[in-house]
Write a structure and sequence with these properties.
Elements lengths: L8 E4 L8 H7 L3 H17 L8 E5 L2 E8 L2 E10 L3 E10 L6 H18 L3
Parallel strand pairs: 1-5
Antiparallel strand pairs: 2-3, 3-4, 4-5
């Protein structure tokens, strides 16, 4: 069956030097947690804008968080949706407080602004 419905793609933010802080964050996690994130990222890619808690949660503006727990640790990947059916992962961190720290959201927003300036489109 031929369909013109394009699948969503995953994009990892990279800075001007080509470094991807989200990929580095994921690579530094233990293998079990990496595997859990692989599963969660694929679930998000398939469910896209229809994904809901507990997998994802809207934070503010265009910024969403992909939620993952492993052992006693809580991790988050902050992302947004872009035109062209792209999911852009902006920032990853280990969550240590009840509420997502403002600083973590600001990092994601700065990276989103930088990405849009360099790549164009929203």
């Amino acid at each position: 069956m031929i369909t013109d419905e394009q699948e969503w793609s995953i994009v990892y933010y990279a800075n001007e030097r080509g470094e991807s802080p989200v990929r580095e964050f994921l690579e530094n996690l233990d293998l079990k947690t990496q595997a859990r994130f692989d599963w969660s990222i694929e679930q998000l890619r398939v469910r896209t804008i229809y994904a809901r808690e507990p997998l994802v949660r809207h934070l503010e503006g265009k910024i969403w968080e992909l939620r993952r727990e492993s052992s006693t640790n809580i991790y988050r990947l902050l992302y947004c949706f872009l035109s062209g059916k792209r999911i852009l992962f902006l920032h990853g961190f280990q969550k240590k407080t009840q509420k997502t720290p403002r600083r973590e959201i600001e990092i994601a927003q700065q990276r989103l602004n930088s990405f849009i300036e360099r790549e164009g489109g929203e």
